């Protein structure tokens, strides 16, 4: 078993029980479009995830085998990106997710989640080592291909649309639209379309509103300031459904107060 992870801040931790998670499943999983698990142990693991107990959730997912991989991947990524304080550990965790995603693809290439977690983990890994360095290493192409396959297999995969939008925004922000388009296939209009699609699928989530606000600034610069501010305000006013959304509400309010 791995070393203990850093606890999630108490302000973010939730108090949901498995009955709550089962009842609210459609709202909680509007982003990844996962089916509700029939297995009680796996539902308990998802309850840990939604309450912010990410290591327990990851362990429960791994114990469940391939049926729990989506839980293990999601818990690991959210912990790595938002809670883990050490960059070196964060990168190791994201690499582990990307490797496990390849195993998932080998098992079933029609599973959108297998492609999504490869693209998401590599995208976050790229931010950790710098987007420019990742692009030079060819990681950007792998991110784009994996996320495009995600939304091809599951067009209503809102998380996939959001991550794909962020890919276009990050590339254009770092190298410009001309080079980004010619070299990496990044397009401003495509990024905007994916942001709109993602938020239309999950309109009540502060995560999607916040990420769109950030992405618009990367795609449109100062011209997006007013709309970005409105999206941040909307994110800060949303009622969070779980620990992840609670974290984003805090981020939005902090940005508005800055």
Assign a percent range to the helix content. over 70%
Basic shape: globular
* N-to-C span: 40 Å
Computed over alpha carbons, the radius of gyration is 17 Å
In round numbers, the mean pLDDT is 96
SSE succession: HHHHHHHHHHHHHHH
Contiguous runs where pLDDT drops below 50 for at least 5 residues: none
- How many beta strands in the DSSP annotation? 0
Q: Bin the strand percentage.
A: under 5%
**Largest sheet, if any?**
none
How many helices? The count is 15
Q: What structural class do helix, strand and pairing data support?
A: mainly alpha
Describe it.
By secondary structure, this protein is an all-alpha fold. The chain has 15 helices and no strands. Helix 4 runs antiparallel to helix 5, helix 7 runs antiparallel to helix 9 and helix 10 packs antiparallel against helix 12. The protein starts with 17 loop residues before the first helix and ends with a helix. The model has no long low-confidence stretch (mean pLDDT 96).
Secondary-structure map:
Elements lengths: L17 H6 L1 H4 L11 H12 L2 H10 L5 H14 L4 H21 L4 H18 L1 H6 L2 H15 L4 H18 L1 H8 L3 H14 L4 H15 L4 H13 L5 H15 L1
Helix pairs in contact: 3-4, 4-5, 5-6, 5-7, 6-7, 7-9, 7-10, 9-10, 10-11, 10-12, 10-13, 12-13, 13-14, 14-15
């Amino acid at each position: 078993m791995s070393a203990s992870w850093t606890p999630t801040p108490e302000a973010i931790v939730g108090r949901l029980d498995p009955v709550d998670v089962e009842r609210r499943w459609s709202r909680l999983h509007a982003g990844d479009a996962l089916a509700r698990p029939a297995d009680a142990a796996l539902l308990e693991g998802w309850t840990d995830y939604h309450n912010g107990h990410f290591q327990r959730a990851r362990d429960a997912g791994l114990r469940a085998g391939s049926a729990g991989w989506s839980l293990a991947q999601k818990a690991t990524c959210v912990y790595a990106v938002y809670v883990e304080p050490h960059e070196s550990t964060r990168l190791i965790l994201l690499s582990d997710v990307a490797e496990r995603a390849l195993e998932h693809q080998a098992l079933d290439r029609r599973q959108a989640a297998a492609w999504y977690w490869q693209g998401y983990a590599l995208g976050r890994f790229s931010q950790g080592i710098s987007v420019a360095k990742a692009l030079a290493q060819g990681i950007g192409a792998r991110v784009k291909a994996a996320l495009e396959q995600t939304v091809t297999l599951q067009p209503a995969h809102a998380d996939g649309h959001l991550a794909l939008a962020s890919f276009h925004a990050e590339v254009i922000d770092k190298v410009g639209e001309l080079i980004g388009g010619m070299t990496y296939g990044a397009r401003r209009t495509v990024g905007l379309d994916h942001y709109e699609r993602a938020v239309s699928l999950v309109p009540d989530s502060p995560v999607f509103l916040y990420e769109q606000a950030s992405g618009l600034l990367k795609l449109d610069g100062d011209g997006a300031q007013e709309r970005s501010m409105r999206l941040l305000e909307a994110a800060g006013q949303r009622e969070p459904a779980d620990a992840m959304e609670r974290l984003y509400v805090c981020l939005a309010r902090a940005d508005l107060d800055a």
